[in-house]
Amino acid sequence: MSEVNIGTWLEDSADAPAAIVLREYLAPVEGRDGVFFPPTFAAAENSKEFPGGYNINDWGNGENVCLVDTVGSQANRIEPMFAAGDYAALVPQLVVEAGEKKVSILEAGHRAGDAIVRCTELKDALQKAFQALKNGNAVPLAKLAPTSLVFGVWDSRDTQAKAPRLLAATIRAFNVAELTRSAQYNPAIEYVEEGLLDETEEKDALKAYSERGFRHVPASNTHGGVIAKGDIRREVTLQVAALRLLRGMTDEETKKLRAYLLGLALVAFTKPAVGFLRQGCNLVLDGDRKPESKVVFADGRREDSGLTHHVALEFAKKAAATFGVGESKTVKFDTKLAKDETTGAGKKKTPKKAKPA
User: Fold this and answer.
1) Exposure string (b/e) for 288-319, b if CB count within 10 Å is 16 or more?
2) Most buried residue, 3, 126, 196, 273, by most Cβ within 10 Å?
3) What percent of the chain has pLDDT over 70?
4) Measured distance CA(211)–CA(1) in Å, rounded
5) Does the pLDDT of residue 145 top 50, yes or no?
6) DSSP strand E in the chain: where?
7) Prediction pTM value
């Protein structure tokens, strides 16, 4: 795939692609029939709707699909790549010093809308950038925090400006068999029998003994992972149609902006983001099944993308140089701004409803 062909994806034409999609086939490091652990989720407010645990949807015909890594989790795994190596030069490096810690905006869960960056000297610039976004100009936000436009952002605490994800990835496993496991904790010695602790029948005391490791504690029928009888798939979508909705103040700005964001998105799109997801869930590419990357058009045509990470990175470097990467900054967390937001002048008051006549 040449750079010229990539550039044509951004043209406002009926033949421009709607999206670029990628499907990767995965397997546990132990093998295709290996046990792996999906994430567990808290119960719904109505526990009858979802009692908590693995997110497994039953299709009602003996088949199911299990969520292994969410869209948000995948984004949070991918985005920090832009803080290191050749990727770091593609985006402004905004770092917040908060107490003894330094936090990159690339690690902030809500990106440009996160409290960690909002409560700094960047507050006004971010507010203006979000207001510009609401008014149809994405360039100011791209200069400050371009990955917020790639992975999506919602300034829910202030301007309410939103930008949809241009890049979304999810990992799912199909037709899983759910397992359980049990365990038994045995203390090093019998503390009560040895006279080291008082014998008691009080529930609170016994609970304290158990919690602090002084009693035998069984753990029965807990989550034991799953085995996938079908595929484990990582699916990535780059919404080119959504990218073509972003604009600058002029046609030339718009062209540079779109190419820049496409370059960042393609770099993230082509870099594998699998591996160690959590304890008991280390997934790798299935060596016997090649990834499938397609360019999808509005009329339903699907063509091989021909994309490689090297091609994507070279395109991104040229697009970044043309657009002009924003300034990198290290700023301090402002506790006064944070206090104002929660207790002082910066806290927005909810208007009182008029009393009925």
Assistant:
1) eeeeebbbbbeeeeeeebebeeebbbebbbeb
2) 126
3) 94
4) 60
5) yes
6) 17-28, 40-41, 53-54, 56-58, 64-69, 94-98, 101-104, 153-154, 162-163, 167-174, 176-185, 217-228, 232-238, 276-278, 281-285, 292-297, 302-304, 329-332
7) 0.85
